Write a sequence for this structure.
């Protein structure tokens, strides 16, 4: 893909959630449209384009719609209306342990998660040792994931996500993985990825110094609406103001 090509495009995107009073009502809603619910608009007519190689930070208070946007980019969630186009291999540091089968070993899950990212087994084989070394979970790599602590699962999830050679890397506060030494290792790895030619970074964080360090553009959201889209320093002023 040539530089300047649009790799993520949102056109007038809306995402609404139906909120039911309890699980029973949610279940009956499958069979009937008469079940009462409240509607939550998480993303409200949002439009933007992101070019190949851009590094973009998403700012906003809790509930602003940032994570919903990233979930729609990865295909975890779908828009209620509007159009989303994504062009490139996406690797997401959102829910690091999603996609794991607890009954499989860590090594087997590397292949499972790699396949979910669009790799074939021969490609995963080439990066298997790198992932195992990065995760730093020792002999547990050949034990069932159900025996892992939450920290070990997150380490393995991070190790897979950053080593599948993504074209679009999505990070949502995931850099708080593990102890200080491992966090610094994660930050260094993300930095290496985005310094590669043409890798696009989408970054949700409440840490403006980290956003300033990684990103050149900022999108500020409030109650599902984009209220600013421009240079990172101006975005930080808007977010903190």
């Amino acid at each position: 893909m040539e530089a300047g090509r649009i790799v993520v495009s949102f056109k007038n995107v809306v995402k609404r959630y139906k909120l039911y009073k309890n699980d029973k009502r949610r279940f009956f809603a499958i069979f009937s449209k008469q079940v009462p619910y409240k509607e939550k608009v998480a993303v409200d007519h949002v439009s933007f384009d992101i070019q190949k190689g851009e590094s973009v930070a998403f700012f906003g208070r809790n509930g602003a719609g940032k994570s919903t946007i990233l979930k729609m980019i990865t295909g975890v969630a779908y828009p209620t209306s509007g159009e989303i186009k994504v062009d490139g291999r996406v690797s997401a540091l959102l829910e690091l342990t999603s996609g794991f089968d607890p009954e499989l070993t860590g090594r087997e899950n590397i292949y499972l998660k790699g396949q979910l990212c669009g790799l074939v087994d021969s490609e995963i084989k080439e990066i298997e040792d790198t992932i195992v070394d990065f995760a730093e979970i020792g002999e547990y790599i050949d034990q069932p994931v159900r025996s892992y602590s939450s920290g070990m699962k997150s380490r393995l999830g991070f190790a897979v996500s950053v080593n599948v050679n993504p074209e679009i890397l999505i990070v949502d506060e995931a850099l708080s993985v593990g102890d200080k030494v491992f966090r610094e290792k994660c930050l260094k790895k993300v930095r290496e990825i985005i310094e590669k030619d043409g890798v696009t970074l989408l970054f949700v964080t409440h840490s403006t110094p980290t956003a300033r360090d990684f990103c050149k553009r900022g999108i500020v959201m409030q109650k599902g609406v984009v209220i600013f889209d421009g240079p990172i320093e101006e975005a930080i002023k808007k977010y903190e103001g």
Summary: The chain has a mean pLDDT of 88. The beta strands are 6-19, 38-51, 55-59, 81-86, 90-93, 168-172, 200-204, 217-222, 225-231. The chain has eight helices and nine strands. The first helix runs from residue 23 to 28.
